[in-house]
Amino acid sequence: MQRLTLTAAVTVLLTATISSALAQMPISKEKTVIHSVAYPNRVKVTRAIYHIGVQVGAIPLSEIRVKVPENAPAQIRFGQATVTDTTGKTLNANTSLSEKEVAIAFAPSIAAGETIEIDLNNVRTSDLIGRTWLFPIYGKTIGSAQEIPLGTARIQTYQ
């Protein structure tokens, strides 16, 4: 009987701990990565374009970050980043490129319901092996310093 009581107490404690941890995680179900692709998708191409589409949900976005995977097996370099809307009009954005991430800050924020297209131009990798790159995408809303996970851009390259 004591074993059953102890098991029940531990189960309730673990459930409460996990539930409270999940409740504090900022998960966005409204803002999503809708597509991602490499043009051309061959690794021998020295100036590829990684194209990522993001749909903004109910809250406007002031910043987007595309992070290089932490355990990336090869180095990756980005030449520049451009952001357009669905009509092809270039949006006013300040971009910051580093070896670990691409940060894009929007001068007027991206309105709710909008879809934006991010082009990471002149992408170069240090290896010649086809890979599946998984880039986590994060966003920030106006007046918030907390990053919200928007999804993962899956870029496939081939030999």
From TrEMBL:
<dbReference type="Pfam" id="PF10989">
    <property type="entry name" value="DUF2808"/>
</dbReference>
<dbReference type="InterPro" id="IPR021256">
    <property type="entry name" value="DUF2808"/>
</dbReference>
<keyword id="KW-0732">Signal</keyword>
<protein>
    <recommendedName>
        <fullName>DUF2808 domain-containing protein</fullName>
    </recommendedName>
</protein>
<feature type="signal peptide">
    <location>
        <begin position="1"/>
        <end position="23"/>
    </location>
</feature>
<keyword id="KW-0614">Plasmid</keyword>
